[in-house]
Amino acid sequence: MAIELTYLEEFALITLNRPEALNALSMDLIAHLGDCFDEVAKSKARALIIVGHGKAFCAGADIKELQDRELMAQKRGGELGQAVFAKLDTLPIASVAVINGYAFGGGMELALACTFRLATPNAKMGTPEIKLGLIPGYGGTQRLPRIVGEARALEMVMTGKTVDAQEAFRIGLVNRIVEGDPVVSGINFAREFSGYSLPVLGFARDAVKRASQTPLHEGLKIETDLGTLAFQTKDAAEGMSAFAGKRKATFIDR
Ligand code: CAA
What integer is the mean pLDDT of 86-109? Predict the structure, then answer.
């Protein structure tokens, strides 16, 4: 299978497994990814980890499949890629891309749609579409500037330049550089938040994500609304009571 969805303890793990093509995303693979995200959304997993098998996280859209494609088929392909990555972006649980090698084009866009990105020391990231006479098509022109700022995004998209793990960390493209097994690194990172209340984690993520999509006064209103929702959860009552009682909180995701 070119995509494997497995569960490890309380985590879902998606492994891109098409190493002979550096995990390039064919249309079939993208559709399958969408099915996997639907399944993860319905599962009991507390976070999703995504890794690539072999020397790449993912080398992008399948260029051989793109060649000679009719214009309208290309438009539909872009819309499908965007829709599938939007599913990932809005999963009820957080996602962690562990970029273990190349993440180019659509592969980088897959990582950009995750809540968090980690990079192994050998990681290389970029949007090289310009070298193919193309531009990023699975959300890269929109998510990249929201993460690294317009100037850096323009430079990456218009020069096609690749950044290594250190540079990616310096510009805020990845949260951390991790050594060792990528799956273990992803799980260890996810454990730092996965014990907290899932609905409250969702409110926190949504509030922060809205910051780059709304004027400040609307963002502050969203913060108040989501904060008020969080306050009404049993988990908020438990968290505050545990603090007062000098004990560890036990959250129940309600
Ligand atoms: N699509 C299809 N096949 C790909 C591929 C891709 N994106 N990337 C790599 N492959 C294939 C190669 O054709 C090669 O297959 P063969 O052995 O059959 O020739 C195999 O994977 C191994 O690749 P290389 O021999 O090229 O490996 P390398 O280590 O020498 O180079 C690389 C690695 C620098 C990542 C290079 O493969 C490369 O530049 N790949 C293309 C990256 C790219 O341009 N990505 C953007 C795609 S467009 C896009 O993603 C649009 C969008 O926004 C959705």
Answer: 98
Shared-domain flag, residues 221 and 155:
no
CA angle 237, 242, 247 (to 5 degrees): 165
CB 235 near ligand 1, within 6 Å = no
What pLDDT band is residue 1 in, cutting at 50, 70 and 90?
A: confident
Across the range 38-66, mean pLDDT stands at: 97
* Residues 121, 83 share a domain: yes
Q: Is 20 a catalytic residue?
A: no
User: Is the shortest distance between the CB of 64 and ligand 1 below 6 Å?
Assistant: yes
207 in a structural domain: yes
Residues 5-44: b if buried by 16+ CB within 10 A, e if exposed: beeeebbbbbbbebeebbbbbbbebbebbbebbeebbebe
Residue at 100 is within a domain: yes
Percentage of the chain beyond pLDDT 70 is 100
> 163 CB under 6 A from ligand 1?
no
Ligand 1 atom nearest to 105, measured from its CA: 50
Residues 58, 180: one domain? yes
Select from 172, 190, 208 the last residue of a domain: 190
Closest residue (by CA) to atom 19 of ligand 1? Answer: 21
pTM of this structure: 0.97
Residues 22 and 135 in one domain: yes
104 lines ligand 1 (CB under 6 A): yes
- Catalytic choice (79, 129, 167, 179): 129
Q: What is the radius of gyration, based on Cα positions, of the chain?
A: 19
Q: What is the mean pLDDT of residues 184-205?
A: 98
Segments forming the whole domain that contains residue 237? 198-244
